[in-house]
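(Protein data)
===
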Amino acid sequence: MPQPNAQTVAAQKAAMIEAQNRAFMQQSLQKTAYCPVTGGSGTTATYSAGQTLYFDFPELGGAYITDLLIGYNLTVTPATAGAAVYALNAAAPWSMFSEAKIDYGNTQVRTHPYYWKTIDQRRGYLSMPQGVPPAGQIDGLLTAQLASTLPIVKNTGNTWAGKMRLRLNMLSPDSVPGVLPAMSVGNTPQLKLTCTPNFYGADPLMSVMTASGGTNPAVTVTGTINVDALYLDGSTMRSNMPLQLNLATEPTGQYYWESALTPFNSGLTWQRKQITTRLEHWDMIAIIIDGQQSNSFMSNYANLLAFELGPDQSGQNLFKGWNAGNNVSIYDYFQMEVRDKYKQDLDLGVIVWVDACTRGIVNPNDRVGSQVLNMSPNGGFVATNHAYQVNAVSTSNGITPRVEVLMYSMNYDGLKLVNA
């Protein structure tokens, strides 16, 4: 009998590891552990404007973190001086943090928490941010603890309490890329949450609330932040033998925050910027901020004249384009690319450029059917540009007009640890 060649043996081994990993992700019982504040000072950190809060991952033998639940319990007190009238900004409450990072040897996550809201919204039919059901039986007492309303009654200590979910393996609960080991190997993973320096301010993405009238406004914020880790350790109710996960052949999923497209001007001139992260992008959104108001990223849909994504800066060959020399209405994008897919609308100003993980692929390990944007140096579109035309922008409100791009990308170098 002929012996299998090395290529066949390697393929069989890879298939066995893939099946083993899929079983681990699908069959392991989900567990929860708290993330201690770095330095061993308890489970909660005090919210403080402009300060970075540090949380260590729990050390759990043979376990892998899939999600982080960031809990906030704040008292928000708007002052009454000058008869100020307060309003929430577009990204509230996610804008209470100006940045979220996870360091594990290298930076695995760097993003703005508002991105998590859009991920929640795109998980399925009528999915809502922070897991709030859109209809049916809803327990108000439970909602108050998980995703409370955001009252802004003046001269009152308003309670804001809720959870934000950071999905490390964002593509699917069964997908391996993005999970991080929770064991004492190399550097301990660390979550860094930067409290926005301007809780009160005009920027719709970087500040939480502002005044829509009156004079001498001010906001006082106190409270605490805690973080829980959701993890899998191979435990099942089927057997006392734990399942195993092998990251050696898996890429890792990472969050990236591109530099903003700024200055961002108005008129018929295309505003164009090249994507600089040279990886395989599975999810990418743009947030268009025209600077005209704080309670919305853009003033209205009519202000958005055209937008496109192309493999280079010429604008001649496009991946996607609306009103980009093709007479295709921008409203066709919102119908075909948003409402048809998600059965609801996203916030005004949010454009989804890449969404490879909501195409209904049954097996998350089978990445053949996904529509990714490959910008890797080996055969990818390394000069990809995104571009926009808007009718008007404004700097008079103290807001910098710009386009922010947030993405989730596959790094095929895999998870690299220091001292591991």
Observations:
- The chain has a mean pLDDT of 89.
- Residues 40 and 264 are 45 Å apart (CA to CA).
- The first helix runs from residue 6 to 27.
